[in-house]
Each structure stands twice: as C-alpha cells, then as structure tokens.
Amino acid sequence: MPKRRDLKKILVVGAGPIVIGQACEFDYSGTQACKALKDEGYKVILINSNPATIMTDPNVADKTYIEPITLEILEKIIIKEKPDAILPTMGGQTALNLAIEAEKKGVLKKYKIELIGAKSKAIANAEDRKKFRKNMLEIGLDLPKSIIVNKFKTAQTALKKIGLPAIIRPAFTLGGLGGGIAKNKKDFFKIVKNGLQESPVKQVLIEECLEGWKEFEMEVVRDRNDNCIIICSIENVDPMGVHTGDSVTIAPALTLTDKEYQVMRNASIACLRKIGVETGGSNVQFAINPKDGRMVIIEMNPRVSRSSALASKATGFPIAKIAAKLAVGYTLDELKNEITKVTPASFEPTIDYVVTKIPRFTFEKFSQSPAILGTSMKSVGEAMAIGRNFKESFQKALSSLEIGLSGLDRLFNISKKEIEKKLKVNIPNKLLLVAEAIRKKVSLKKIQKLSGIDMWFLEQLKEIVEEEKKIIREGIPKKFEDFNKIKSIGFSDKKIAELTKTDEKTVRLKRTALKVFPVYKKVDTCAAEFKSFTPYMYSTYQRNFSVKTECEAQPTRKKKIIILGGGPNRIGQGIEFDYCCCQASYALKEDGFETIMINCNPETVSTDYDTSDRLYFEPLIEEYVHNIILKEKTNGSLIGIIAQFGGQTPIKLAKFLHENSFPIIGTQYSSIDLAEDRNRFRKLLIKLDLKQAESGIAKTYNEAIDIALKIGLPLMVRPSYVLGGRAMEIVYEKSQLKDFVVEAFKAGENNPILIDKFINNAMEVDVDAISDGKNVFVAGIMQHIEEAGIHSGDSACCLPPVAIKADLIKAIENQTKKLALALKVKGFMNVQYAIKDDEIFIIEVNPRASRTVPFVSKAKGIPLAKIASSVMAGKRLSQFNLKNKNYKMYAVKEAVFPFNKFPNVDVLLGPEMKSTGEVMGLDKDFGLAYAKSQIAASNSLPTKGMAFISLKNSHKEEGIDLAKQLLKLNFTLSATEGTANFIRKYGMKCKKINKVSGGSPHIVDVLNSKKIALVINTGGGKSEHRLQDAIALRRATLINKVPYCTNMSTAQACLKGIRSLKIKKISANPIQEI
Questions:
Q1: One of 169, 360, 570, 932 is an active-site residue; which one?
Q2: Are 211 and 165 in contact (CB under 8 A)?
Q3: For labelling alongside 842, which of 28, 169, 253, 891 has CA 20 to 30 A away?
Q4: Is 133 among the residues known to form the active site?
Q5: What per-residue confidence (pLDDT) applies to 734?
Q6: What mean pLDDT is predicted for residues 854-882?
Q7: Mean pLDDT score, 560-589
Q8: Rounded to an integer, what distance in angstroms lies between the CA atom of residue 464 and that of residue 1064?
Q9: CB neighbour list of residue 303: distance below 8 Å, 6 or more residues apart
C-alpha cells in the first residue's frame, strides 16, 4: 500500500528534556522520524522543549517549536499550523500522554486531526493496566497475579489478595517512576501512595513479585497489512526485580531454547495484534520462571521505546525511520533495507555477533541515596559493545563505560562472607561482584542461587576469571595464537598490563611485534548473506584460521577526518556534546571531507549509520582509537582528529594522540594542557592583566590544607581533569575542609586538586566563543540566574543578559578575545566569569565545545558547531554570516533534575552538577521566557495562592521587597517565625508556620495538604536540626510539585515570570520565523 496522499502536514511530538528513563534515545528516534517524513514530501511540524538535541535544529523539521510540551501550547500550534495528523510514538511517554490528553479533552476531534503510528485505543489498551490484563487473558497469555488500585484506601484489600513481596507499577509513567518492590507493609503503603501521585491517571497495578525470574524483551514491528517482524530479542542478565534500563542486557537472547524463542515470538506478535498497534515499532516484555519454565507477559509499549534505539544499533535496522514510514501508509515489503539495498524491510534482521549494553550510574552525586537498584530506573546513560562472542562483547562494554574499568576489575575488596551477603542485593556492577565471588571460590551453584543470574552467564564469567589466572601465571603471551586468543575473549591491553604488572605501552609494543591486530566487521542486518553498503563497523580478534578472516573496513582513498564522540551519557556530559559531534560531521561532509565517527553510545544520533560516512562502534579508550587510526591511515589521507567536541572523554585522549604524533585538528594539546595546568594558566592571566580569585594547586593532603589556610574561607575545592563539577565543594566552615579535600583527591584519581578563593554573592557569566587563530567571534554571553556557587550546568541562564551593564559586556568580550588568541584556540572556547562590585574575575577556561553550544546556537539562530568545525579544518570566520537572527528575543535555559528518583536526597544545588537535561523558554519578554522555561521543566509558576517564605538573616532586608511584590501580585504570605516577625514589622500580614522541628502542624504538613503555591527558602544554617528542617521542606516541595526558589536571584526571576503570566498571553512561534 503506497503512502497516504491525503496527509500533507504532520506534527511530531518530541520527548522534552533528558530525564532518567527518557533520555536521548527519543532524540534519536524523533530525528529519524522527522527526516523520514520530510524525505517523503510531508511538511513536518515539531514541538520539543529541549534545545540540546539535533532534533530541534532548524533544518530537521519544517517548523520547529521549542516550547513547553503542554496541551495549551499544542492547541496554539494546531490553530496556527493546521496539521492533518499527529505522530505521538517517537517522543516517549511525554508524547503518548499528551496525545491521550488531547483525545480525552476533545482537541483532536475539534480540529479533525488523527493520530498516526498508534491510535488512542491501542495506547490505552497497552498503557491502562486493567485493559492490558483483560486483553492478554483473552488471547490466552499468562500474566502475573495482580490487582488494580485507583484509591489509596483500597490498597489494604490488594495487599491481602497479592501478599508480600509485591511489585507496584504506576500507569502511564516512564522508567518505572513511582513504582518499586515492597517487601514489608510500611514500604508497600509508601510506594502505593507515591505511585498514585506519580501516575497521571491515578492508577497503580499491584502484582505478584517475580523477583529472580529471567527477563526478556522483543522489539517488534508491524504494518497495516499485518506483516510482523521481530527486529531483535534482548535478554537481561540481571533477573526480574531490576528495571530493564538498569540491567546489563544482551542481544540476541542467549539462554532461550529455540522452542522457547518461537513461543515468545508468537506471543509478541499476538500481543501487538490484540492491542491494536497497526503500524510501527513496539516493545514487549516477558518473564520466565527458571524453575518450571512458566512464561508471563509483563508489559508492552505501543511506541518506539528506550530499547528500540539499542535494537536499531544492535542490528542496523532503523526502527524509528521504518516506523515513521509505516505510519503514513507504506508496508514493510515496499520499503528497502538501506544497508543491503536489495532486501526488503520485511526481512527479519539476523546477527552473527553478540551485543552487550551496560548502564552507567551516578550514585556518587546523590550520596544520601543508597546505591541499590529496583523497578524504578536510576541509570543516566549506557555503553554498548559488539563482539563475536559474549566474553569479547562484555569486556569491551566494561571498558566503554569510562569509569576506570579495563575488564572484570576488582572493585569489591571484601570478605567471602560479605560477598555472599551482597550477591542477594541488586547493586550496580553486580557482575564484577560475581567475578570476585568466583575468585574467592564460591561455587557457581551458590552464586546462581543467591544472585538469580543464569548459569550460562556465570560459566562465561568463570572462563574469563580462569584466563586471568593464566595470564598472571604465564605473563604476556609470546606466540601469535596465544596472544590472539586472549584478545578474542575481550582482554584489553590495559587489563593485560594490569595482570602482568607492566604498562599498557609495553603490551601494545609486544602485541604489535607479533602482528596481533583486530579485524573490522560490518553490522549488516543479514549476517553477511548479502553485500553491505554502509560502513558501520566493530572490531574483533575472533579468527577462523582455516579461512583467512576478512577485514571489512576497506579504508577509502579520500581526505578524512576522525571525530571522537562523547561516550556514554552521564551527568555533566550529555547529549549537548553529541549534538556538536553530529554538526561537525555534517559540516565537514559539506566541506568535502570523509567523516569517521568513533563512539560507543547506542542512544545517540552520532551512532546512526548515516550521520557520518563511516562509523566505528568502539570504546573511546587509547587502544581501540589507536587501532582505528592505524587502520584508516593505510589508505587515503588522514587530515586529523577532532577531540574538542565530545566533552572530557576525547580531551583525555588528546595527550595520547599528541604523544603518538597523530594530527589533532583545531586547538592543539599544548593549549588544552595550558588551560588545565593551574600554575601556567595563572602566569598567563597575570601577563594578560586579567583577574582571577586567589588559588593554589595541591598534590598531597597536607599541601592542600596549607594552601586552604593561607587563602582563607570561603573556598572552592575540586579535582582537576573532571567534568560536571564532580566532587566540587564550597567550604564555608573549617570543620568541612578535611572531608572535602579527601573526597576531591578520590574523585580526581590522584590528579592534583585545585583550591580557589570563593567569590561570595557574585553573578556568574558563561561565554561561548569561536576563534580561527586570528579573529574571535563571541557567540553568546549568558547571565546565570542563580548566583555564583551553583554549577553552570544546573543554573538557569539568560541570553542576552538581563542585568549586566553595557561597559561590563564590552569588557567581557575583550577579555574573551584576549584569552582565545593567547591560548592559540582554533575552534570553540568556553569561559566562565564572576562579576562582583563591577569587577570581572575569570573562574575557568575550557578550550573545547561546552554544554551551552546548542542552546546559544538556537537562541541566536547561528549553527555554531558547524562553523567551528569548518574553522578547525581551515576556513576563516570572515567566510560566515555571524549575524544574530533572534536579537529581539530572550532565551532562558533551565535545568531538569532527577531528584524524584533518589529518595532522601537534598534538592539544594551547589557546585557539583546534578541535572540530567535542560529546556528552553523563548519570548520577546524576559518574564514570559522564564515562565515558559519553568512550565517546560514541570515547575509551572502559580499566579495566585499562598507563598511561603523562609530566609536566612542576611536575606531578610531583601525579603521585604519580595513580600511587597508578592502582595501586589495578590498572593497571601506565610513564613517561619523569624521571617514572619520581620515581615509583620513592616505592616504586612503574614501567617506563621512552624518549621518541622517546631512540631505539627508544620510546613511539611501544610505542603502535603496542598495549601501552598510557591516556596522561597534560602535558610538552612549549619546545626543538625536546621539542616534537617531545610531538607524536609525542600523534599516536601518536590513531592507536592510546588515551585521552590533556594536563592534570592531565582526568586526575583520567578516574580518577573509570574507578573508576565498575569498580564500577557503565552504565544508559540517556530524558530524558523523569529
């Protein structure tokens, strides 16, 4: 059936900001969908509030609305653009929930718009737990015993029926938000209450606990002619009880018998038919009881899911692109497989390798929350690796994580008894604990019983541990066959060096002398049955000696540039860097270069097989990058390597590239090192006559304490060579100093630590610039809304600045230009400044792309990353149009935080970054731009109600002005005793509310009873009960979804936003028309 001609305009709903459970996999699928629909001649309209993604670039859709994803805004866009259909299956749960709301409230009917990709009936059949259960029973599929709860008071009945332990799953949420496993009554009622709050339809499913069962996923695609294909089966190594996004997963499933696989395949297809998913991709999850083989269906997602990105990268089959084309009427047999160019898309992909995905966690940033996994997702990113066998694939994936692992490292230095105790608990890096148990001679049978991990995987890990022992015993192999054998099961050079007590360089030289090199194989969707036209490759050492194993890399004779990606997402290094890498690839292709991408992140657009000319899906560590460079240098001309776009990951490789005389394009290693080396950098600033706060660099603990005492408090303590403010702390009290110094050394992996005088109550400014070596273009000067001391990635910021004097802006521009030329920057540079009493201080300089590049690009309508790439490859800035297209607009960037995933964590911000994503508000009025950013970050500002104020003494004078403004805006006032008395002194009415330590009814009780609309709290203090008071207050605002401000500058911005909301109308405009 050919494509539909009755549709002309299609509105695609994006996923919004990156949050845990809904990350850049949806940026990848949404981008693919927009491109596919445009290729078919449709006009594409996009709504997405996330500026950091490629998806919101002006050339991806015809009209791009960077606006809050709400029904109110959606309706405004519908009135303006008059789309014929909405595609809601590419934007995760955000898009699905919006589509359901639009249908329920009659918006779709009112404007005669249809949903394509998934009808609302199919969405409800899958997402509504009650309907899903009924449908599955009707087709004879088994489900866990369960009961639906819509009201908290019926939870007691459900408990009696299901018993403990029980799994609680809220309806219409993502990443298991609000759910969990309850093992006792107290937890049961707590999770049910939370689940009902988080579910937009106030519904939870209470289910028998399948902890310890094996878990599988099927990625299925169906078209309107009922052609169904399985793209990929995925097996979770961790048993049920750990969210699939937090599990180590393997594709294809390795421990199913053929009969079990066929039963599961048929069940998946039957499920899709029954739910009514007519077209597109879906994800179906199953559990199998290892004791008796009972198979139950757990859930299905009637949309492109988190696993779809993994399945697409694992097989080479572009699920989102195909799903978008099926949504407009095509059938699978009418679409060509782009990799083979001869087979139709209705061919099920076949893979002749093993893919391993390992999640990446950042529990160290939320230390008050225990590092324990459950049914609510906690990971912030993932790495994927491909090998010819499980051992090779798994060990490559461990190296790809960038957490210092080189294989099955010994992270758990604990007794046998402790290990056995820990095996029962779901923790990150569980498989490293299993390896330690094997080393300590715990039997596989016992490990299996305690951990629930399938025996086949345990045997594989045991074989790796046995091989480790052999390497320790015999040293570095002396023969080709022996060396190749250990490489073929995934041992990295670094791991071999560690086991043989040598260094990595020695291992590399011995391996090179024996000519032990990897071959590269293509991901081709068909296990080499047909010729593959796309160079999407992975390395392997597994050789078949009877036939000479062919290397499929075939480097070309072209002029080529290698782009190093950003690796797995983490807090501090996210999708913004992937955006820069993609833009580099696009620009350099246009400039006539062949582009080669190296990355190991399956969620991103950079690892799409058609983003660059060639893609190597490999770990971003020295050995693998070195091998690829050597391979590519065998033909054609390697112009250079881009190391300044992928965040700290490639920057850490710059030294290695420099030492091995590989050409770096753009800013050279000497400049990068000069900016990181505190002493040399300080001398440069003195020479340039630029100011910096007094600082010191310490290599030892004692040296650090001496420097700290000399500079005086308050201080900023941080490790060098880290990103995202890892272990960065502000020290106000002498008693905190020792702990913070120890922590900084630990986080910096024994690199020196940096100690700076902290400039209190200063305004922070972020600047992005591009230099071609002769001229410097200052692209954006962003004013932070929070005062200095809060990490730049967590602070809201405004472009252009709202409150910086013109002469200071001019001075900042001049200082930035001076710095770029002195550092010999070629490409991007980011500078952070602090302004206090009209004096400008330099906080730090990074001669690389920063996380604000996409935001500034969209705020100004200038493709900065493309320009920087071309400049690095030899063009001059004078060749580009650098005119600000949006000079009449204010753009406000706001951060989005994962606090709801980490109970007990204080939501107070500081110098260590905690946010996972960002949104952008764009308007001619600063107040409305700020208000839009808050709506997009699910922190909508109130326009009436009771405001609660609790201020520390130094803010009370300023607080009087706030109180007056709030009264003018028709708010009523309430405050803690000290603040209330102070406000009353000025003749204003203010209700007194107790702090938590003051007894009930206290502020948390009042928040829980939904009587407060806005919280302004800058208090705290250092005594234990005051700290606990402040933490309890901030957590309660989070749970009750009440907007809160923790500093005065944010409070002022909030009031401007509220004022604009009261007197102005929110409008929505595409960025192409600003």
A1: 169
A2: yes
A3: 891
A4: no
A5: 77
A6: 96
A7: 96
A8: 65
A9: 88, 89, 90, 92, 95, 96, 117, 118, 123, 280, 281, 282
